[in-house]
User: What shape does this take?
Amino acid sequence: MRLILLGPPGAGKGTQAQRLVARYGIVQLSTGDMLREAVRDGTPIGLKAKAVMDAGKLVSDDIVIGIISDRIDQADCANGFILDGFPRTVAQAEALDGILAEKGLKLDAVIEFKVDQDKLVDRILQRARETAARGEPVRKDDDPEIFKTRLAAFNRDTAVVAPYYAERGLLTAVDGMKPIDEVSEAIAGLLETV
Assistant: This one.
């Protein structure tokens, strides 16, 4: 099963991805983690990424796509994978389509988390309070101002990815404002039809 989870930051994609990993025995692929692994392992694409990052620049789509292509060839992706946080643009979505086609693979579903963005800030503040109350470090992303910046970037750059997949008949939506267990069940119901 090959899935993409779409939605703004704080929508619950990471939480649901972990549940999908446990339920279906597939891996969650984070572009940030993959980038760090490729650099650490010294792969050819990782060396290119390292040079760009060492120069203080953003890694290009070509490098990110190359890292994803290498990663989905690994044995633990044989049963499938979940992309969370990628693609972030239509150009990345088109490139991903090309990679999958070259490998004879296809996406099974793209799940969009529909949320009330005005309530997301409250959700993030609550998450930060609960994390602090447990004595755990609060994520940098849970700062309200940083979160608002990330949300604006999502609305500017990434929100257009959902219509791209809708046009291809791959997009389904879940209500990301519901309780975690209800969202999990809604996703399971969607995936039964895939």
Notes: The beta strands are 2-6, 27-29, 81-84, 109-114, 171-175. The first strand starts at residue 2 and ends at 6. The chain has nine helices and five strands. The chain has a mean pLDDT of 90.
